[in-house]
């Protein structure tokens, strides 16, 4: 495997309905995928949280809680002499997400009585890369995490 | 549902005991209990996280979204008995610098009572 690259074929791909009651399953599955690929327990839990946040954003903002939509999840793993990596790719339709690159101001969010606005920040702080893209009517969210062997 | 929340009010302090997995699915239940406390003017709130295994931004958002209103009314939200895993999540976005995280419920009660002196 080339340095810090992922294979073209995912290790696992599943499609789930856009329902919040499946979030715990998503968290458990992601933790499992990270753990069997030798990520430590703490890292695995954090990666699972990042995926929870991404899926929640899709359900909320792209699908507006319409449970008739699906989200495809693909897990890619990689290992070289120094590092191991996990990539999670989410494929979904609906409204393309608005991805802000500005850091959050927690005090301002509290003052403005905001109940949201920290999910993407959590994803960015946990993962090495978080990228959103849209091609035609499909949206993609790709997150990667590498750790030393 | 992998989440439940119990409420106990002693004198003018309300204790919330969230248990399990607090995410965008279970958050409605948690928010409803916070709203009930605000309506009943129980605004000195301790969230005892002993049995909280997981929290996502949806759960943190509720604590964040009502803090200002509660403080404007003279109350506060304090968190106690947070396990390392959940504390790490709060710490990720800086909650630990803004909220009081106390060792246990007694310490949180004392902090409220000392604030009245």
- N- to C-terminal separation of chain A? 15 Å
CATH class of chain B: Alpha Beta
Low-pLDDT stretches of chain B: none
Q: In what range is the share of β-strand residues of chain A?
A: 25-35%
Give the number of domains of chain B: 1
Principal-axis shape of chain A equals globular
CATH homology superfamily of chain A: Histidine kinase-like ATPase, C-terminal domain
| CATH level 1 class label of chain A | Alpha Beta
The computed structural class of chain B is alpha/beta
| Helical percentage of chain B | 40-55%
Number of strands of chain A: 5
**SSE pattern of chain B:** EEHEEHEHHEH
Strand count, sense and barrel status of the largest sheet of chain A are: 5 strands, antiparallel
Structural class of chain A: alpha+beta
Level-2 CATH architecture of chain B = 2-Layer Sandwich
Q: Please indicate the count of domains of chain A.
A: 1
Note the quaternary state here: heterodimer
Shape of chain B: globular
Number of strands of chain B: 6
| Main beta-sheet annotation of chain B | 6 strands, mixed
Strand line-up across the major sheet of chain A: 1-2-3-5-4
Give your account of this protein's structure.
The complex is a heterodimer of chains A (149) and B (117). Helix content of chain A is 34%, strand content 30%. With 149 residues, chain A is an alpha+beta fold. Chain A has a single domain, classed as Histidine kinase-like ATPase, C-terminal domain (Heat Shock Protein 90). In chain A, helix 1 (23-36) packs antiparallel against helix 2 and helix 2 runs antiparallel to helix 4. Chain B has a single domain (3-112), classed as 2-Layer Sandwich (Transcription Regulator spoIIAA). Chain B is 46% helix and 30% strand. Chain B has 5 helices and 6 strands, in the order E-E-H-E-E-H-E-H-H-E-H. In chain B, strands 1, 2, 3, 4, 5 and 6 form a 6-stranded mixed sheet that branches. In chain B, helix 1 links the parallel strand 2 (13-22) and strand 3. In chain B, helix 1 (27-39) packs parallel to helix 2. The model of chain B has no long low-confidence stretch (mean pLDDT 94). The interface between A and B is medium-sized, with 32 and 26 residues.
